[in-house]
Amino acid sequence: MVRLPLTFDEVERGQRLGALLRRARGQRSMLDIALNARVSPETLRKIETGRVATPAFPTIAAIADVLGLSLDVVWTEINQPERGIEPTIADHKTRERLAS
């Protein structure tokens, strides 16, 4: 199966999702959260760092449940671009790479 490249918006949404999950996890162990959500710690790490920008819905639902986040909150947070944050050089390079 051929997977289409992610759009810039999908990459940004994945980064916002990762940031939201990191904030919600706080000082709790990534290992504990992952095991309680029944996902691998590596999967959680990839989602939190934005390396998996479009994780499966059941994965996000399980992680959100363990973190005490409603899916409504998750949806709202990841679909609102952060205001007042300047794009980094890496963001520009990602945008250029996705555009080509």
Describe the structure.
The chain is mainly alpha-helical. The chain is built from six helices and no strands. It has helices spanning 8-25, 30-37, 41-48, 57-67, 71-78, 89-99. It is globular.
What is the strand and helix layout of this fold?
Elements: H1 8-25, H2 30-37, H3 41-48, H4 57-67, H5 71-78, H6 89-99
Helix pairs in contact: 2-3, 2-4
Can I get a quick summary?
The chain has 100 residues and is mainly alpha-helical.
Primary descriptors:
globular; 100 residues; mainly alpha
Helix content: 55-70%
- Helix- and strand-based class? mainly alpha
Mind summarizing the main beta sheet? Answer: none
Oligomer: single chain
Number of β-strand runs: 0
What is the residue-averaged pLDDT?
A: 85
Specify Rg, calculated over alpha carbons: 14 Å
In angstroms, what separates the terminal alpha carbons? 21 Å
Strand content: under 5%
